Amino acid sequence: MNRDIPFNRRFDNTLLNPESKWEDIESFVDDTLEYNFRNVVVPWYAIPTYVIEKVEGTEVGINVGPGGFPLGMVPTELKMREIEYYMSLGEAVTDFDIVINVSAVKSRNWDLMKREFVTLSERVKKGNRVCKFIIETSRLTEEEIVKVCELIVDVPTIDFVKTGTGFGPRATSYRDVELINSIVSGKKQIKVSGGVRTLEQVERFMKLGATVFGSSSSVSIYKEYEKKYGG
């Protein structure tokens, strides 16, 4: 296991089940703080009223998903308005995971994609935040995954390619990450999200080039890690 980054700091601990109750959100935030995960990701409405105050004075950031999550089909201008709103909440909001417009990819509208990548990522980086684009590999062909990654590599203000929202038709596959890494290795980081539930998966994805993970199973994965490696 590569220990250059503390294992707990590889996880954006994620609770985006639309049926989550407020008490679920509270306990999830508490767990995230206890394990000092990289970020907490919970239903967005809880951020201004609750989560910002909870993470104050900790190392845990808040991860948001602007851009019509989880489908990404809203106009670029509306994605920008969401980004501006979350920026206005302060520096506790550290990471912006923006969903691409899959319909535009299917339409081969590369000009729209390039414009959106540049416009939105430049705004995020101007605010000194982390910019990730969710490419939703479960809805793309291998050719489309490669093309989208080629576009992203050319935009210096994008930090990460993220595999999925977790709401796609299948989990992220090892092949997805292998393809992404073949294009972005050494240029962008890779965040894997969508069906990450075990330490074995995390270790295999890391060997393929992934560095960060979005998972609702972060606690159980970390406990597996402690049992295997002794913390």
Radius of gyration: 17 Å
Taken together, the total number of domains comes to 1
- Spatially, the strands of the biggest sheet line up as 1-2-3-4-5-6-7-8
Total DSSP E strands: 8
Q: Output the number of helix runs.
A: 9
Provide the succession of SSEs.
EHEHEHEHHEHEHEHEH
**CATH fold name:** TIM Barrel
Distance between the termini: 12 Å
Give the uncertain stretches in residue-range form: none
> Could you say which structural class the secondary elements and strand pairing correspond to?
alpha/beta
Give the overall shape, derived from the CA principal axes: globular
For the sheet with most strands, the description reads: 8 strands, parallel, barrel
Task: Tell me what the CATH architecture is.
Answer: Alpha-Beta Barrel
Mean pLDDT: 96
CATH domain class: Alpha Beta
Helix content: 40-55%
Strand content: 15-25%
CATH superfamily: Aldolase class I
Describe this structure in words.
- GO terms for molecular function: deoxyribose-phosphate aldolase activity.
- Keywords: Cytoplasm, Schiff base.
- This is Deoxyribose-phosphate aldolase.
- The chain is 45% helix and 15% strand.
- The mean pLDDT is 96.
- It is globular.
- It has an eight-stranded parallel beta barrel, surrounded by five helices.
- The chain has nine helices and eight strands.
- It has one domain (7-229): TIM Barrel.
- The protein is α/β, with parallel strands linked by helices and 231 residues long.
- It has helices spanning 22-35, 46-55, 76-88, 102-106, 110-126, 142-153, 174-184, 199-207, 218-229, and strands at residues 11-14, 39-41, 61-64, 93-99, 130-134, 160-162, 189-193, 212-215.
